C-alpha cells in the first residue's frame, strides 16, 4: 500500500521534479513573494499531498506545474518527465497539458461547460489530442465515464452538467482529466465543495484509479484528513515555504515542525472530545517584506532567539522526513505534545444544567416552491419541497444544541425559522414558554434582543460601508439606549476586547480585516445585546483550521461567561464534537437522531448517522471500507430524478 | 448640485491623493459653479442686447466666437447661457436619479407584488421614446423651465430605477441584510442606512451620465421649440437658431455645440473620478 520506501532511494526519473521554485507577484522589492524556494519530487504512481492554509501558496504551485502563472515571475525549475516546463514552446506546452499532466479543480460546476453534454465535453478533449473520429472519441468518452464508476455511462454521457449531482459532476471532471492517459493528475481541493459522504466516495475513486492506472497525483488540500486518505507523502506549506516533508504517517502522526504540530492540535476530530482546541495565535506574515529569520517565528510556541535571526533550512529528522526548524530535535520539551487520540467522554462544562428549556422548537415545518393558486397557462405546477419537516427540539439554558446535516438537509432553513427570518408553515418557536411571532419584525424588542445570529460568511455578514465601531455599536443603540459618544465607544471597545480585538479596530472597514477578525466582529455584534440564545450558522466553515480553533474557543468562553445558549448549525462532526452539549442529526428536513455527543458519536443508532461518521476522513491511513461505504456508493451513484 | 458634488470631492476622507486628474476635475467643477452663479456678470458683453452694426461677424479678437444675426456676442451668450442650460440639466438629473433610486431601493428590497407593480409602471414609462415622452409632458404642462426639468426627470426615472433595483436585488440576499433584519431594524433603516451606502457608487456614476443626457435632451427640446423660449441664451436654443445660418455663418451653431460637448465630457470625467474614489469604502488605506 505504502509507496514511500520504494521512492526514497530510487534513482529513476521523477514524474514531477520541482527544484527551488519561487514565484513573485509584482515587481521590485515590494513584490509579493508568494512561493519561496520550494523543492519536491513525485515518483511515477506516487500521490503527494501539499497541505496549507489560505495564503500558503499551495494553489499557486499547482498552477505553476501547468505553467499557468499569468501575473507572477517564476524562478527555479519544474521538470515534468524530465522536460523543463518553463522552457517549453507554447505548442509543446499545449501538447503536454492533458497528455502528461491534467488538472482537477475544486468546483466541478465551473469546470464544466453548462451548455454542452458531458460526453461531448470529454470527447472534445480526446479529439483535440488524438485526432480520432467522432464515433471512437464518443465511445472512449463513455468508457471513461464507466471507469469513474458512474452508473449507466452511455446514458449519463447525454446529460448536461446541471442534470448531475455535485459528486457526479466531479466524477465527470475526473474522467475528462483521465481522457488522454496523463502521467500526473494535479488536484486542487477536489472534494472541498462536496458533502462528507460524497467526499468519501470520491476519495475511494481516486485511490482506485491510482492503483488501476498507476497515475501520479499532486494533491492540494487544507484538510489533513483528506490528504491522509489519498497521499503517500506530504509536504506542509506555510507562507510560501515548505516547512515539513515526509511520509503521510510521519508528518501527520509524528509531526516535527511547530506549525504542523499546531495544525494537528487545532484540528477538531470526533475522537478528541471536549478538549480545548489549541489555536495558532497571530496571522500570516506580510510576504512583501519577508523576515530574515524563520517565517513562522512570530506565531511559534517554541520560538528561540535564533529563530528571528537565521532562517532554518530543511533538515532531515528521520528517513525521508525533513523539518525546517532550528529546534526540530527539542520540540518535545518546548511544546505540549499532540493530544492523544483517545475518546474522553467528559461532558463539556455547562453553566446551568437541566431545568426548563430556554428555547423550544415545536413541530416546525417549512416548504419551498408552493404551487400556484390557479392552474393557468405559463404557470408551472411545482411540487413543493419540504425543507424542514416536523422538527421538534429543545435547547437548555447555557447549553449548545448542534444541528448537523449535509447540504440540502434543511438545517439552515431551520436556523432561519428560529431567527424569524423565514416564516414557518406550521409550528411554534417558544422562548421561555412564550410563543414568538414567526417573523422577527413582529417580535418585541426584548425578544429580538434575546435571539442573535452569527452568519457563515464573514465577508457578507458585515456591511462593507460601515466601520467596526458602527457595526458593533448599532445593537447597543438599538437595545441598550446608549445613543452615542464616549459611553457607546467604551462599550464597543469592551466588546471588542472580549473577542480579542482591540480599540485599534474601531475605525476599520470589513475589507481591512482577515476572515477570522471579521468573524470576531460578528461575534462581538451578536453579544452586544447580551443575548440569551445565539444562532450560529456554520460560523467557522469559511475559516482556516487554526482560526477555526480560535473562534470555537472564543464561543465556548463567551458561553461560560454569559450563560448563553447556542443553536449551532454545522456540517462538520469534528467541530460539533467540540462545542455541543446535545447533537441532532438532520436529513431531508427531519431529525433522524438526537442525543448527547457521547451517545451520537459513540453508539450511533441510525444508519445515516453511522454512514456520516464512517465517511469522515480521519488521519488514520487509508482503511478498507466496509458495508457502510458500499451503501453510500449506491446512494451517490443513483441518477437524480 | 454641482456645489454638493464638489463638496463631496473636497470633504470626503476618501479623497486622499489630489493628483493631476483630481485637480483638473476640481477645477472643472469650480469653473462650472462660477459660471452658473456669475455667468452674466463675467460675460464681456450683454447676452441679450442687439447690435445691428456687428451682425453675423466671424470670430475676431473683439468677438472670439463671432456674432449672431442680431449682433449679439456668441462668446458672452455661451457664458451667460451656462446657468439656464446647466441648472435645468442638473436639476433634471438630480430629480430623475432621486426618483429612480428611491423606487429602485423599495422595489428591489420589498420585492413581491410591490416590485411587480412598480416595475410595470416603469416599463410603461420606458416604452415611450425619451424625446417623445419629454415633449408630451412639456406640451401638457406648458413651456416652462420647471416643466422641462419634470419632463426630463420622468424620462430618467425608470432607467435609474431599473439600475438601482438590479443592484439592490443582489445586495438584499447578503447576510448583513439578514443581520439587520434579525436585529429588528425597521425597513426604513435598512433601506437608508444599510442599502443606500452600498448603491451610492452606482448613483454617482448614473448621475454624471444623466447630467450629460439631460443637457442633450433639453437641447433637443429647445431645438424643437419646446421648453425654454428665446431670447434665453440656452445652448440648445442657440444651436437651433443658428443652424439656419449655417451656410452664411458656421460659428452660430458650432460654438454652442462645442460648449455642450465640453461640459458633457467634463461631467463624465468627474463622474468617473468620483466613482473611483467612492468604489472602496475607506479608500483602501494601507493597513
TrEMBL record, chain A:
> What is the protein name given in its UniProt record?
Peptide/nickel transport system ATP-binding protein
Question: Pfam families of this UniProt entry?
Answer: ABC_tran, oligo_HPY
Key words of the record:
ATP-binding, Cell membrane, Membrane, Nucleotide-binding, Transport
Assigned protein family: Belongs to the ABC transporter superfamily.
Output one GO BP term: peptide transport
InterPro entries (alphabetical): AAA+_ATPase, ABC_Ni/Peptide_Import, ABC_transporter-like_ATP-bd, ABC_transporter-like_CS, Oligopep_ABC_C, P-loop_NTPase
The organism's place on the tree of life at top rank: Bacteria
The record places domain ABC transporter at: 16-264, 359-613
Q: Which NCBIfam families match?
A: oligo_HPY, PRK10419.1, PRK11308.1
Q: Where in the cell is it found?
A: Cell inner membrane
Residues passing through the membrane, by range: none
> Which terms does the record give in the GO molecular function aspect?
ATP binding; ATP hydrolysis activity
UniProt-listed SUPFAM superfamilies: P-loop containing nucleoside triphosphate hydrolases
Q: Name one GO cellular component term.
A: plasma membrane
- Membrane topology label: Peripheral membrane protein
Q: So which residues are the signal peptide here?
A: none
TrEMBL record, chain B:
Q: Where in the cell is it found?
A: Cell membrane
Instruction: Fetch the PROSITE patterns from UniProt.
Output: ABC_TM1
User: Which UniProt keyword terms apply here?
Assistant: Cell membrane, Membrane, Transmembrane, Transmembrane helix, Transport
What protein name applies here? Answer: Peptide/nickel transport system permease protein
Instruction: Fetch the InterPro entries from UniProt.
Output: BP-dependent_transpt_permease, MetI-like, MetI-like_sf
Q: Which Gene3D superfamilies match?
A: MetI-like
Gene Ontology CC annotations of this record: plasma membrane
What taxonomic ancestry is recorded? Answer: Bacteria, Pseudomonadati, Pseudomonadota, Alphaproteobacteria, Acetobacterales
Q: Which GO terms describe its biological process?
A: transmembrane transport
Q: Which residues cross the membrane?
A: 20-38, 86-111, 131-157, 199-228, 248-270
What does the sequence similarity comment in the record state about its family? Belongs to the binding-protein-dependent transport system permease family.
**Membrane topology label:** Multi-pass membrane protein
Q: Which organism is it from?
A: Humitalea rosea
Question: Where this protein primarily resides, as one coarse class?
Answer: membrane
Q: Which stretches make up the ABC transmembrane type-1 domain?
A: 82-271
Amino acid at each position: 500500500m505504502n509507496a514511500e520506501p520504494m521512492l526514497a532511494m530510487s534513482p529513476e526519473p521523477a514524474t514531477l521534479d520541482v527544484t527551488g521554485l519561487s514565484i513573485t507577484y509584482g515587481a521590485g522589492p515590494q513584490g509579493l513573494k508568494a512561493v519561496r524556494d520550494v523543492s519536491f519530487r513525485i515518483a511515477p504512481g506516487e500521490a503527494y499531498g501539499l497541505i496549507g492554509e489560505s495564503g500558503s501558496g499551495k494553489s499557486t504551485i499547482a498552477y505553476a506545474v501547468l505553467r499557468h502563472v499569468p501575473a507572477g515571475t517564476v524562478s527555479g525549475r519544474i521538470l515534468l518527465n524530465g522536460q523543463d516546463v518553463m522552457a517549453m514552446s507554447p505548442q509543446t506546452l499545449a501538447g503536454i497539458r492533458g497528455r502528461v499532466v491534467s488538472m482537477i479543480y475544486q468546483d466541478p460546476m465551473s469546470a464544466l461547460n453548462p451548455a454542452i453534454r458531458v460526453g461531448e465535453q470529454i470527447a472534445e478533449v480526446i479529439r483535440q489530442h488524438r485526432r480520432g473520429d467522432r464515433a471512437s472519441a464518443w465511445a472512449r468518452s463513455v468508457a471513461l465515464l464507466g471507469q469513474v464508476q458512474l452508473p449507466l455511462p452511455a446514458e449519463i454521457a447525454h446529460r448536461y452538467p446541471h442534470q448531475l449531482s455535485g459528486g457526479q459532476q466531479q466524477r465527470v471532471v475526473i474522467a475528462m482529466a483521465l481522457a488522454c492517459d496523463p502521467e500526473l493528475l494535479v488536484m486542487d481541493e477536489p472534494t472541498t465543495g462536496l458533502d462528507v459522504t460524497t467526499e468519501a466516495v470520491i476519495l475511494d475513486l481516486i485511490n482506485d484509479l491510482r492503483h488501476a492506472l498507476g497515475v501520479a497525483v499532486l494533491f492540494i488540500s487544507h484538510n489533513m484528513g483528506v490528504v491522509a486518505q489519498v497521499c503517500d507523502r506530504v509536504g506542509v506549506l506555510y507562507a510560501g515555504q515548505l516547512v515539513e516533508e515526509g511520509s503521510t504517517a510521519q508528518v501527520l502522526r509524528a509531526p516535527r515542525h511547530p506549525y504542523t504540530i499546531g495544525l494537528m492540535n487545532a484540528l477538531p476530530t470526533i475522537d478528541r472530545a471536549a478538549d480545548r482546541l489549541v489555536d495558532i495565535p497571530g496571522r500570516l506574515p506580510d510576504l512583501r517584506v519577508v523576515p530574515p529569520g524563520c517565517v513562522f517565528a512570530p506565531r511559534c510556541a517554541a520560538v528561540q532567539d535564533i529563530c528571528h535571526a537565521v532562517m532554518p533550512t530543511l533538515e532531515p529528522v528521520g528517513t525521508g522526513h525533513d523539518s525546517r526548524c532550528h529546534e526540530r530535535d527539542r520540540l518535545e520539551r518546548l511544546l505540549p505534545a499532540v493530544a492523544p487520540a483517545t475518546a474522553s467522554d467528559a461532558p463539556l462544562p455547562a453553566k446551568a444544567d437541566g431545568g426548563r428549556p430556554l428555547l423550544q422548537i415545536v413541530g416546525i415545518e417549512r416548504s419551498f416552491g408552493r404551487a400556484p393558486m390557479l392552474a393557468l397557462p405559463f404557470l408551472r405546477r411545482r411540487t413543493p419541497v419540504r425543507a424542514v419537516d416536523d422538527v421538534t427540539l429543545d435547547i437548555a439554558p447555557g447549553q449548545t444544541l448542534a444541528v448537523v446535516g449535509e447540504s440540502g438537509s434543511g438545517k439552515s432553513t431551520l436556523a432561519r425559522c428560529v431567527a424569524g427570518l423565514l416564516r414557518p408553515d406550521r409550528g411554534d418557536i417558544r422562548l421561555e414558554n412564550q410563543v414568538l411571532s414567526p417573523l422577527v419584525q413582529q417580535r418585541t424588542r426584548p425578544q429580538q434582543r434575546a435571539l442573535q445570529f452569527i452568519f457563515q460568511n464573514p465577508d457578507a455578514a458585515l456591511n462593507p460601508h460601515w466601520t467596526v465601531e458602527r457595526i458593533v455599536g448599532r445593537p447597543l443603540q438599538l437595545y441598550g439606549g446608549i445613543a452615542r459618544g464616549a459611553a457607546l465607544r467604551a462599550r464597543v471597545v469592551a466588546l471588542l476586547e472580549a473577542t480579542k480585538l482591540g480599540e485599534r479596530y474601531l475605525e476599520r472597514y470589513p475589507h481591512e480585516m482577515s476572515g477570522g477578525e471579521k468573524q470576531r466582529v460578528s461575534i462581538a455584534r451578536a453579544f452586544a445585546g447580551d443575548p440569551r440564545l445565539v444562532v450560529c450558522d456554520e460560523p467557522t466553515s469559511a475559516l482556516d483550521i487554526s482560526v477555526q480553533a480560535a473562534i470555537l474557543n472564543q464561543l465556548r468562553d463567551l458561553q461560560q461567561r454569559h450563560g448563553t445558549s447556542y443553536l449551532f448549525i454545522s456540517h462538520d462532526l469534528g467541530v460539533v464534537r467540540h462545542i455541543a452539549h446535545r447533537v441532532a442529526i438532520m436529513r431531508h428536513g427531519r431529525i433522524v437522531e438526537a442525543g448527547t455527543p457521547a451517545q451520537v458519536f459513540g453508539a450511533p443508532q441510525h444508519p445515516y448517522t453511522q454512514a456520516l461518521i464512517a465517511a469522515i476522513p480521519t488521519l488514520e491511513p487509508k482503511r478498507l471500507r466496509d458495508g457502510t461505504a458500499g451503501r453510500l456508493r449506491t446512494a451517490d451513484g443513483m441518477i437524480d430524478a | 448640485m454641482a456645489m454638493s458634488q464638489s463638496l463631496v470631492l473636497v470633504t470626503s476622507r476618501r479623497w486622499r491623493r489630489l493628483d493631476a486628474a483630481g485637480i483638473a476635475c476640481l477645477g472643472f467643477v469650480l469653473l462650472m459653479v462660477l459660471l452658473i452663479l456669475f455667468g452674466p456678470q463675467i460675460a464681456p458683453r450683454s447676452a441679450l442686447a442687439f447690435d445691428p452694426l456687428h451682425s453675423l461677424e466671424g470670430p475676431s479678437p473683439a468677438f472670439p466666437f463671432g456674432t449672431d444675426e442680431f449682433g449679439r456676442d456668441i462668446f458672452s451668450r455661451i457664458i451667460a447661457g451656462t446657468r439656464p442650460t446647466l441648472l435645468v440639466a442638473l436639476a433634471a438629473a438630480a430629480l430623475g436619479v432621486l426618483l429612480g433610486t428611491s423606487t429602485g431601493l423599495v422595489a428591489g428590497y420589498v420585492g413581491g407584488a410591490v416590485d411587480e407593480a412598480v416595475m410595470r409602471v416603469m416599463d410603461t414609462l420606458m416604452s415611450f421614446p425619451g424625446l417623445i415622452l419629454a415633449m408630451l409632458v412639456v406640451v401638457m404642462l406648458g413651456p416652462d423651465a420647471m416643466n422641462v426639468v419634470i419632463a426630463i426627470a420622468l424620462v430618467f426615472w425608470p432607467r435609474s430605477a431599473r439600475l438601482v433595483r438590479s443592484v439592490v436585488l443582489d445586495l438584499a440576499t447578503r447576510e448583513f441584510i439578514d443581520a439587520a433584519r434579525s436585529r429588528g431594524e425597521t425597513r426604513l433603516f435598512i433601506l437608508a442606512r444599510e442599502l443606500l451606502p452600498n448603491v451610492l457608487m452606482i448613483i454617482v456614476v448614473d448621475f454624471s451620465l444623466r447630467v450629460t443626457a439631460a443637457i442633450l435632451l433639453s437641447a433637443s427640446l429647445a431645438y424643437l421649440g419646446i421648453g425654454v423660449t428665446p431670447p434665453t441664451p440656452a445652448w440648445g436654443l442657440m444651436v437651433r437658431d443658428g443652424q439656419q445660418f449655417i451656410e452664411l455663418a458656421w460659428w452660430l451653431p458650432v460654438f454652442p455645440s462645442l460648449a455642450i460637448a465640453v461640459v458633457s465630457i467634463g461631467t463624465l470625467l468627474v463622474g468617473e473620478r468620483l466613482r473611483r474614489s467612492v468604489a472602496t469604502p475607506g479608500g483602501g488605506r494601507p493597513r
